[in-house]
Write a structure and sequence with these properties.
HIT family, subunit A, Zinc-binding protein, HIT-like_sf, catalytic activity
């Protein structure tokens, strides 16, 4: 996919973002519509549209995103209490920007999806 996304513009500094981490392969910044007290997006600098577009030779890059999530959690002091890391795929999976990214959520107790709570009540 060759269409430039908002994330490409953040990487190139065409548009601002509150960057909390950067290295040669990735960038992490605050989500503009946070769903938790801490809500960061961790993106590869290499554009990959969806999980379905990840190639075999990109597995180290994708794994690197999770290592970055761990580093950020440790640096910001929420690793011990816990955090959630999510990657959505395509429209039905909740993906809105077609450049893979991890959502890192922390800073509060993150509950189960509503359907899991209903199953727990049913026994």
């Amino acid at each position: 996919m060759s269409t430039e996304t908002i994330f490409d513009k953040i990487i190139s500094r065409e548009i601002p973002a509150e960057i909390v981490y950067e290295d040669e392969h990735s960038l992490a910044f605050k989500d503009i519509n946070p769903q938790a007290p801490v809500h960061l997006l961790i993106i590869p600098k290499k554009p990959i549209a969806t999980i379905n577009d990840i190639e075999e030779d990109e597995r180290e890059l994708v794994g690197h995103l999770f290592v970055v999530a761990k580093k950020i959690a440790l640096q910001h002091g929420f690793a011990k209490n816990g955090y959630r890391v999510v990657m959505n795929c395509n429209e039905d999976g909740g993906q809105s920007v077609y450049h893979i990214h991890l959502h890192l959520l922390a800073g509060k107790t993150l509950g189960w999806p509503p359907y899991a709570n209903e199953r727990a009540k049913q026994g």
